[in-house]
Design a protein that fits this description.
heterodimer, A: 150 residues, mainly alpha, 6 helices, B: 150 residues, 7 helices, 73% helix
Chain lengths: 150, 150
Amino acid sequence: MFTNRKFLFYLQSIITILAMIVIGFILAPKVDEQLTPQMLKVAVAPFTSVSLMIFLLFVFNKVIQDLDDKVYTLREIAIGFTIMLVVTLIVVGGIDIVLAFLQTLDKIVFLSSIFLCLIIFFILRIANLYTMAITTGVAEGIIIFIIFVY
Amino acid sequence: MNKSIIYILILIIILPFGLFIFEFLSQDITVVNIIKVIMAIFFPIPIIIFTFYLFLNLQDQSTVFTEITQETPIHAVYFLASSVLITLSILYAYEYLLQQNFAKTLLPIMLNAFILSIYVINIAIIKSMRLAGLLSGISISASLYVLFLS
């Protein structure tokens, strides 16, 4: 089970999506019971990034999948770990800065849907060592943000 | 190493989680704190999956692990004793310098979860006795500190 690179990649992306759902529930402010135009905005907000993702899927025709059972060299392992650390730092610092400007619910939904579409694009088109590192960094950054900063 | 002994060791390492969670939640039981505790337990899982992804099939043709197979249990005992002393002194220094109660923060839960994840990697990939002694020494000293000395 854990000796299959494809399974590990899909498991990692599922964990990242779950972490994103948790942070969405935490960061969402209190929603009124009455229907307001603000709530209609929330329903429309994810479609901007979904259209962006469909455009990217249209442009990138070929599928890159490097998920074989080969042994990585030391240089590739070092590059993967550094990419993971850099993405983690960017996510931890970036969420804190961005949330100072965007405080309403629809903008938070828009931001999280951009990450979600990025991960779906990685699953469908580019499954690689480097995209795996980016996915891990996003998950780690969100979890560290919940533990320490929030 | 005998595999059943390792599983019993992991069970014993899981037990301090209850102590640390009780210590943290004894100040204030809210939904946010419970979410933080759950996130602190699941914090090392993306890292573990990433390392499994990176070091797949490494033990087949590696030269790094030839030295590890020649070690004796005495080395592991030395590592355990020295790690207990070193981590106890580090925890005393932490509490003296930062003036912060170690037991009331999320740090022991995160430390224990991280040690457990490295244990799993040790069983699957590295198979070193010295690393097992070092990790269990850190876990033992953290739980001793929270129980008696803080």
